[in-house]
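User: Sequence for Xanthan lyase below. Tokens please.
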Amino acid sequence: MPSFSRRTFLRVGGAVVFCGGLCPQSAAAPLVSADLVVYGATSGGLVAAIQARRMGRTAVVLEPSTHLGGLTTGGLGQTDSGTAASIKGIAGEFYRRIHAAYAGTPVTPTSPARFTFEPHVARTVFDAMLAEAGVQVYFGLRIASVNRSGNRLLEIVGDNGQAFQGGMFVDASYEGDLMARAGVSWTVGRESNATYGETINGVQLRSGHQFNFPVSPYVVAGSPASGLLPGISAAPVAPAGSGDGLIQAYNFRMCLTQAASRIPFPKPAGYDPIAYELLLRYVQAGWNGPFFTTHGVGGGKTDSNNNGAFSTDFIGANYGYPTASYAARESMVADHRAYQQGLMWFLANDPRLPAAVRTSTASWGLAADEFVSTGGWPPQLYVREARRMVSAHVMTERNCRGQEPVPDPVGLASYTMDSHNCQRVVINGVVKNEGDVQIGVPGPYGISYRSIVPTESQCANLLVPVCLAASHIAYGSIRMEPVFMILGQSAATAAVLALSASTAVQQVPYATLRARLLADGQLLQWPPPAGPGEVIVDSRDPSVTRAGTWVSSTSIRGYWGADYEHDGNTAKGVNRLRFRPSLPSSGTYAVYLRWTADPNRSSNVPIDIVHNGGVTTRVVDQRANGGQWVSLGSYSCGAGTAASVLIRTENTNGYVIADAARWVLTT
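Assistant: Structure tokens for Xanthan lyase:
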């Protein structure tokens, strides 16, 4: 692992300052002024401050806890990236730096990106980026009050008396506390489908992460008179699509290992096995697991998450969290920690469970070299949603599905519209989970600038890239760490442009903002525009010709454009598809092919590359290297439409995929 600049801290009142390698004398002053004041040291908040510094402005970050980096450094090392190729700008740089940290190589604009990592590696990368930019982070800074003048924020005052003045502000917290203090409109919970013309918002009783065997919800199994077990709602289930104030469950993303140095799961104080009675009954009914995920992130460690009907999500225990006081939130975080630690201890030790379950769980433990100050337990609760702003444009399901593209995108999102369960209910005398939704999107889509700025009359110098304006289900797609970084960079860019023009953030000309975002490497449309000397042909391009039958699909992510096509694993030798570019000039072209990978794909797809010298045949394995441009070699090609790439299917041993082809002029 390469070494980075030494971290420097100083204490100001009750706040601890991370100085990013720079600690000017003003850091100790009772009043701190900066061009941009960022509340929330989440990944999005850190990127916002870095961008402001790169644009020549001063920036500070205020964090109410002692943790830096939010979920990105807090255990979520299996990044929910969606279409990884759509992650650009400083976000893309961060993931390239992750790769470079593991590879021990310098980071460059063309370095590969790595989206799985150990928490301490993510922290090291963020520390280096903050040090290079000279960003100061103040820890333990909880908002006591804000001062305003008309529709503009002037300063944030911490509960230790420390004040921070700024020309512009960014609320990058997961909770939206600054936004609320500033008098900006917000909402919590699930809208009805009717509110924004959606189909998968509100109450959703589905099959995902659901009880697959009947389990009694009552203290005495089968006896309603005995009352309900903990965490089960007595309220009747509302009609599908109804709105309510419920939010999806939170948990901790554990970093686990099977190394000999692992820390055994602790038994929390006040442990009560009744909290896990439902799980015991579920196992007794026939459930054999899995009980949590074990996605590898490197170093023999995992990012472990909720999995199944009864797992690490503490369903129903977070309803008051978004609007609670700091002290009340601490209590809720402690409850979540005790629940999840108790769950792991139960799975590893309760003698009523099968020995195989106990042995398998006990083979895991907390990584001893991660989160050392908290005994290996993640310090950051996964706040999947809290407040959400209401502004001039609220992102909805129709935006996510590509049915209503926004005219003013400031970044792309591409993850599934994803909500974890929101409540446990009783249906016909058995327990059910309600709220889980997992619906894919056709491809990356734009997020409106209007969704990250408040209504101007409410606040003219605040941007909200994390608790942005989105419906519950749209937020379920947008709420991913890379997207928060993308929006954090765009928010800071807009803030600096507004400062330079002495105008409200709502009045920044979109054309000006767009030009600067593109200049700084942000990606604002999908598919991306072709570069100089580059021609991309999607399977839906009019120049594509086919023989046989090809079927459209969006089942496996990583495709280019709106979909990809496959041969149905039938009519081998009959089904063919040809990509034909219109090349701008004669020369040598690097030729690439793209597909989505899966074990059911063919490993022996013949590809004919037509060029000036004739036809060259390559064989590609579509079970691997999905969602990226795979080189087919470099060839001399003439201007016009003579060149082509033909996908054949004869003698192939699985599904054959046709997605897109690419020609890049090299000489």
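The chain has three domains: 9-187+442-519, 256-374, 534-665.
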